[in-house]
Amino acid sequence: MINLIPNFNPILAFALFMPKLTKNVWLQYALPVICLAIYYSLNGGFVDTLGVFLSLIFATWCARNMKDLLALVSSCIGYFVLANISHGDLLSFATLGFNLSMFTSTVLYFALFKLIEKARHENITELFRSDRS
After folding, report:
1. 6 in any annotated domain
2. Is residue 55 part of a domain?
């Protein structure tokens, strides 16, 4: 069995990127929450995760209303506050390590999503150039 880094996942970056994936505002907010709810239901569920769900909604709001870098930083801070308040453990060393892996994964996945978006945009632009030739 492969041991993965705890809390190293794309869910917060996914919530940040939703406004770029669809223009449907309801879907932008709902899809990350639904994906996380499905994940939690398949893995035994957690009662104290309301803050995590709220942080996904906050991240999507940040992405809709802020520039990319500010949205990324704000959503990581929002996750730290909302998720840890719901767990009742804001500043322990275990919490800080857990959140560091979440922040790292969010930055890396968000950068990956931005690279994919840029490559996709360049391919579409190139396609239109070749059609005009």
Report:
1. no
2. yes
Q: Cα 94–97–101 angle (5° rounding)? A: 140
Domain that holds residue 94: 11-132
pTM for the complete prediction? 0.81
- Residue 96 belongs to some domain of the structure: yes
Question: What pLDDT does 65 receive?
Answer: 96
Mean pLDDT, each 10-residue run in order, the chain (133 residues): 67 92 94 90 74 92 95 92 76 73 90 89 68 54
Would 50 be classed as within a structural domain?
A: yes
